[in-house]
Design goal:
alpha+beta, 60s Ribosomal Protein L30, Chain: A, 2 domains, 4-stranded mixed beta sheet, two-stranded antiparallel ribbon, globular
């Protein structure tokens, strides 16, 4: 079977994964920012017991050469290390984002990529070979971002009820195999098995089942990608028509016969256009609504009881996935609710991860404000959301009071983490990183960690295991 021609999409992924020197100065610089931001998000997650209780080995064991999980004392095999670190990155819904026909968070792949690179580097050093460097990790991340993001441009898993983390699994499987020294055949074998794995259902992201699995689903996917890569290096076979096989392939079984397509060739488009969650740990479709709400806070904070209606204009994807009424059962439910996020901004003038916890959610004013909200799709917003040269994430908020007076309709088309606002956003991204790491590291350690990201060449030349060692506590 391995001599048969693989599906075109699987082969294109393998060919791209094997390319050397992907990325230019811009995309490599953004990749460094993605690594910095993801590390900060992972460290912030350690403040939440709901996350830390999931970390560590499945069963106690001694690992001679493995992966060190940043910010923890765990030294694990690379698969379990990838689950740990991937879960940390994703836990608070604060890492980078990509929005198209499918949605997702391409830095989820860093969970697997950094841990397998750390394992390779430690193994190489133990065998007197050269370790991988953080430039290798940066270029690997450009590849995983591109694979996941380009797949997301035209292929909607969410409309089939499937979760986007399948694309994480595919991207990690491909690039982890390449980092391990795999051949084109072995990369295709791993990728085909990732497609055959399928994806989890999205039900854990939506009413009535929204729950904490959405915070570890990416860790699960990226670790599975690493596991499939390691299996392929043992010469485990692949499945050439995993996508297109009649009746039994992915397309017929799960996509109602719709082909998986690539909207454009792989390069570094996704990294250059990635969206950073800079200001607020909230589902990205709500970021501009959050900005509007917080800007309106000074006008309405003393008149919350006088509000008769709050009108939110939004785009189709936001209306479909985060327009929620009724009870919200847990933090995972609340941070994916457009109305809850907007209410928090209006009431408190800020939005933090703590605002999703039960203590804040018990404030009866939140649900009173939510009940006054009307969410309307703006067709222009929906169109510009999918426009390749715009990729806006627009929301507008207007407050109407009982005396029939109203605020201006406050509109934001692009959040501060958008490429169009990159110059404005970069210093804020560094501030976010500082705030996140300050929750776990002392001032001396914070200074050392921030210094790591200040010099491009020094960062790119740093051996991976030495970079990971910097995160010891």
């Amino acid at each position: 079977m391995t001599n048969n021609k693989f599906d075109d999409v699987i082969e294109a992924i393998a060919d791209y994964t094997l390319q050397d020197n992907v990325g230019d100065q811009e995309s490599l610089s953004v990749a460094k920012d993605v690594i910095m931001d993801s590390m900060g998000c992972a460290i912030l997650s350690l403040n939440y017991e709901a996350c830390t209780k999931l970390l560590g080995p499945i069963v106690p064991m001694n690992i001679e050469v493995g992966s060190k999980v940043p910010g923890t004392s765990y030294y694990l095999d690379p698969v379990q290390g990838s689950f740990n670190f991937g879960t940390m990155i994703r836990w608070l819904d604060y890492n980078d984002c990509w929005l198209a026909q499918e949605w997702g968070h391409p830095s989820d792949n860093l969970g697997g990529i950094l841990m397998i690179a750390d394992y390779i580097s430690r193994k190489n050093v133990s065998e007197d070979q050269a370790p991988l460097t953080m430039k290798d990790v940066s270029q690997a991340l450009i590849k995983t971002h591109e694979i996941q993001g380009v797949l997301a441009l035209d292929n909607s898993l969410n409309r089939q009820g499937l979760d986007h983390v399948l694309f994480v699994k595919v991207a990690t499987a491909a690039v982890a195999t390449q980092l391990l020294g795999g051949s084109k055949q072995q990369i295709m074998n791993a990728v085909s098995n990732a497609w055959i794995d399928n994806s989890s259902l999205r039900t854990y992201r939506h009413f009535p089942n929204a729950g904490s699995r959405k915070s570890w689903a990416a860790g699960d996917a990226t670790s599975r990608g690493v596991w499939l890569a390691l299996m392929s290096l043992r010469h485990e076979m692949g499945y050439p028509t995993a996508l297109t096989a009649e009746q039994w392939g992915f397309e017929d079984v799960l996509m109602s016969g719709k082909s998986i397509t690539l909207a454009q060739p792989f390069k570094d488009y996704v990294m250059k256009n990635i969206l950073f969650k800079i200001s607020y740990p909230a589902e990205f479709h709500a970021q501009t609504a959050a900005e509007c709400a917080i800007e309106l806070h000074p006008q309405v904070k003393d008149q919350l009881d006088e509000i008769s209606e709050i009108i939110i204009h939004t785009h189709e994807s936001a209306k479909r996935i985060i327009d929620k009424t009724g009870p919200l059962n847990n933090p995972a439910d609340r941070d994916h609710c457009l109305q809850y996020i907007t209410a928090i901004g209006l009431i408190y003038g800020d939005i933090s991860a703590n605002h999703y916890e039960d203590e804040t959610a018990a404030n009866p004013l939140i649900d009173q404000i939510r009940a006054k909200m009307t969410v309307i799709e703006d067709e222009r917003y929906s169109k510009d959301y999918l426009e390749p040269n715009k990729r806006s994430i627009a929301n507008a908020v207007q407050i109407v009071f009982k005396d029939e007076s109203k605020t201006d309709k406050l509109e934001r088309e692009y959040p501060v983490g958008h490429r169009f606002r990159r110059k404005e956003g970069r210093p804020l991204l560094h501030d976010k990183f500082h705030d996140n790491i300050s929750t776990q590291f002392n001032e001396h350690q914070q200074l050392a960690l921030k210094k790591t990201f200040n010099d491009h060449e020094q960062f790119y030349n740093l051996p991976v295991h030495e970079f990971v060692n910097l995160w010891d506590r």
